[in-house]
Write a structure and sequence with these properties.
14 helices; five-stranded mixed β-sheet; Heat Shock Protein 90; 3 domains; alpha+beta
Length: 490
């Protein structure tokens, strides 16, 4: 009876492991088939059935070889299921398979402590039977069976709980799931899992020894190991979890460093153009001061009748026109920083995209705007960079396409909204568990952080960022709270 119940529980636990597998892989990889949920469950059932069936087909003559063969076959099953049901990338696949196996084995041996502790109950029942507290043999056998089944159920529950919680912790901590991992980084996060897996394989090989043709547990021979081994395994599991967290923190710090460098460059560029704007305004004041002398010269040249004087007049007027062109601001929103930024970005863009149409007539700022000009510059600067880049890509693919950027803003109650619309080629790369579209550039660490910078600036004002696609028009919406003190909460 005990063997039947034990077999049922082994099958059930294998299926639950399969569920954890589809959850774990599905959190990192995109499903290959359209009906992704069904394919995930199919992968779970195949893994559970395959693992449970391995003990039926593997020979038991050589225990060491059987254990190694079983682990090797489980590894092959995992790789096969990953390749069949998921769009696997081989670097991350190695990490997922090894980590899954290591966490599974470590969780099993930690849960195995339940049987070690519970084995004292069997000794207690034997003493009770010998002293006559349990008078019936059938009752004694039933008690042993109930105890064994209860311990098996408890061990299985503890195993699944540790296993699932550990995998969930890894999924939550591994935030940068679209990060292109390098070989040295793979080795860094793979080593704790490999060490833990090899320790567990070693334990399976040496756990049961034979003395005088009598099987004997390693824990019975060396009782102290009953505490040392779980401690080692627990430390091994923690090294896997904290190694992954440390790796992700390193990626986040590198991204923040790259983002900060870009922001510093943007700030430097904005400061430079602010100085240019001050120079322009200074030039306007100087021209106003000299306007009387200028008109006197014009009048003197206009009264001349000779051809040379007429040519001098035309030359002088042409030079004045060029001077006024240099002082002209095409975009005037009422915000000095935004005006400078818009004009700077536009003049830079039209050098390579001469037919770019930029419309900012509806980009207006209320007199009571409490959002700092610095943050407004960060938002619009990154948004314009992305929009100009998208227009350039569209122009490369379709030279006759119309390229445009439209900026607008409005206020609803205490909330201030900015919208940036731009034409693009219609190609959007969406990633699972990602808020924004992914960059299609090879250097993903140095690019694709513009929208994140916009989000960080908006969050200072309890705001948010949203995006949408309408045919070949990309629409970016930024919402911020226009209320005094909002930026001071962060």
């Amino acid at each position: 009876m005990f063997n039947i119940i034990s077999g049922i529980f082994e099958a059930a636990v294998a299926l639950l492991e399969g569920y954890c597998l589809q959850y774990f892989l599905g959190s990192f990889l995109e499903k290959r088939l359209i009906k992704g949920r069904r394919s995930g469950w199919l992968a779970a059932v195949l893994y559970g059935g395959g693992k449970w069936g391995l003990k039926l087909i593997l020979p038991s003559e050589n225990e060491s070889m059987r254990i190694l063969a079983k682990q090797a076959l489980i590894c092959l099953i995992l790789f096969g299921l990953t390749m069949c049901f998921y769009k696997a990338v081989h670097m991350i696949t190695v990490f997922l398979v090894v980590t899954f196996m290591a966490v599974s084995e470590i969780s099993f041996f930690l849960a195995y402590m339940i049987l070690q502790i519970g084995s004292h109950l069997f000794a207690l029942w034997v003493i009770g039977f010998e002293k006559g507290y349990i008078t019936s043999l059938d009752a004694f056998i039933n008690i042993l069976e109930v105890t064994g089944n209860g311990l098996l159920i408890l061990m299985s529950a503890v195993f699944i709980a540790i296993f699932y919680v550990s995998l969930r912790k890894i999924v939550q901590d591994y935030r940068e799931k679209d990060y292109a991992i390098r070989r040295t980084e793979l080795l860094f996060i793979l080593t704790p899992g490999m060490v833990g897996l090899l320790i567990c394989i070693l334990l399976r090989i040496i756990m049961i020894t034979v003395e005088n043709e009598v099987p004997k547990l390693l824990y019975d021979k060396y009782p102290l190991l009953a505490w040392i081994v779980p401690a080692i395994l627990l430390l091994s599991l923690l090294s896997i979890l904290y190694g992954i967290k440390l790796f992700q923190d390193m990626i986040r710090l590198n991204r923040e460093k790259s983002s900060r460098i870009i922001l510093e460059k943007q700030i430097g560029s904005m400061q430079e153009h602010m100085r240019e704007m001050e120079h322009v305004y200074s030039g306007i004041r100087s021209m106003k001061h000299d306007m009387k002398n200028t008109f006197a010269v014009v009048m003197q040249l206009a009264m001349g009748n000779s051809e040379k004087e007429k040519e001098d007049l035309q030359t002088y007027l042409s030079e004045m026109n060029r001077t006024f062109d240099r002082l002209d601001f095409q975009f005037q929103t009422g915000n000095a920083v935004v005006d400078t930024l818009l004009n700077m970005k536009y003049h830079e863009a039209v050098r390579t995209l001469p037919d770019l149409q930029m419309d900012a007539d509806r980009l207006l700022f209320p007199e009571t705007l409490l959002i700092q000009s610095y943050d407004m510059g960060i938002i619009l600067g990154n948004a314009l960079d992305n929009a100009i880049e998208a227009c350039g890509k569209l122009k490369e693919k379709e030279p006759e396409a119309e390229i445009f950027i439209r900026l607008s803003s409005y206020q609803r109650g205490k909330m201030f909204f900015i919208e940036v619309e731009n034409s693009f080629d219609g190609n959007v790369i969406r990633k699972v568990h990602k808020e924004f579209p992914a960059t299609d550039k090879a250097d993903k660490e140095a690019h694709g952080i513009g929208l994140s910078n916009i989000r960080h600036a908006a969050e200072k004002y309890h705001g948010a960022v949203d995006w949408a696609v309408n045919n070949k028009v990309f629409i970016l919406s930024v919402m911020m709270q226009n209320e005094r003190g909002a930026e001071n909460d962060f």
